[in-house]
Write a structure and sequence with these properties.
single chain; alpha/beta; Rossmann fold; five-stranded parallel sheet; 12 helices; 36% helix; binds phosphoric acid mono(formamide)ester; Aspartate carbamoyltransferase; pyrimidine biosynthesis
């Protein structure tokens, strides 16, 4: 693969390969001096056409910790605002001879369009409702660290995990990438949403759909909550926060239905008091939400390292 556009084209061994690579960077990031020079002399452009806190900052930190020069292009301050097309923007970035380009865009497929026009590797930082592959990979890395920790009674096997992904499945690229990754690794995946927020195509994915949240989380090992993406809702269905919390919010009482050891995850940003109560989100012994952010930096270091290997003449990934 030249690029990292989605989880869909990845084989199980490629997913594990990226997770294995990320582990060394988790260890480095926990040291006082967090610097490596694997990408010294390389230039990485983060081109974000949609808002972001976690993904943008963690890609920037990841590139800098590996010694690269990192520049950020925010669409709101760019010539996109003057009417420049996506293809002209891609051609412009390509002419600057970046060594990797990280792109977030509100349109599904926009990242692939740019990847087809530029010479360097392109990494998808979230495109519309399509995929957010580094989020799914960092979520898997978080689960794998938890499975291997002393506090987890389970064996280190994704194939034995029961995971419920709950919330706005219809508009969520995080849900799609996680479903693809977790089912590829053999996990049992349940998805739960109000009927209006469950995509028809869910029938073609290897998951069990639920509209009853209590039933969906019964006995699961991991509860992954998703945000209501009001900004992507054009139709009549925008439930009130109160209604939504009543039926689909993760409260301490509801969490008791999951397995006693169950891990709580959320990709952020959270709507506290809507899809998740603060008392659950901030539960030290159960919530992995800040751990997910920590894993995000290490995972993105691994992705930047791996996709630039061919250009650097280093074995691995593209030569496999
Ligand atoms: N999880 C995630 O993609 O967060 P940001 O939108 O803040 O990048």
């Amino acid at each position: 693969h030249k690029d990292l556009i989605g989880i869909a084209p990845l084989a199980p061994w490629e997913i594990h390969y990226l997770l294995d690579e990320a582990e060394q960077w988790v260890a480095l990031n926990r040291q006082p001096a967090k610097h490596a020079d694997a990408l010294a002399g390389l230039t990485i452009i983060n081109a974000f056409f949609e808002n972001s806190t976690r993904t943008l900052l963690s890609f920037e930190i990841a590139g800098k910790r590996l010694g690269a020069d990192v520049v950020n292009m925010h669409a709101a301050q760019s010539s996109v605002k003057k009417g420049e097309t996506l293809i002209d923007t891609a051609t412009t970035l390509n002419a600057m001879r970046a060594d990797a380009i990280v792109i977030r865009h509100s349109s599904s497929g926009a990242v692939q369009l740019i990847a087809d026009k530029v010479d360097c590797p392109v990494l998808n930082a979230g495109d519309g409702q399509h995929e957010h592959p580094t989020q799914a990979l960092l979520d898997a890395l978080t689960m794998r660290f938890w499975l291997r920790s002393d506090s987890c009674p389970l064996s280190d096997e994704f194939a034995k995990l029961k995971i419920a992904i709950c919330g706005d499945i219809m508009h969520s690229r995080v849900a799609r990438s996680n479903i693809l990754l977790l089912t590829t690794l053999g996990a049992e995946v349940r998805v739960c949403a109000p009927p209006a927020l469950m995509p028809a195509a869910i029938e073609h994915m290897k998951v069990t759909p639920f509209s009853d949240f209590n039933a969906a989380i019964d006995g699961v090992d991991v509860v992954m909550m998703l945000r209501l993406q009001n900004e992507r809702m054009a139709g009549p269905f925008i439930p009130s926060a109160r209604e939504y919390r009543h039926l689909f919010g993760l409260t301490p009482e509801r969490l008791k239905r999951a397995a006693p050891h169950a891990l709580v995850m959320h990709p952020g940003p959270m709507n506290r008091g809507v899809e998740i109560d603060s008392s659950v989100a901030d539960m030290l012994e159960r919530s992995a939400i800040t751990r997910q952010v920590e894993m995000g930096v290490a995972l993105r270091m691994a992705c930047l390292d791996v996709v630039t290997r061919r250009a650097r003449g280093v074995e691995g990934w593209n030569s496999l």
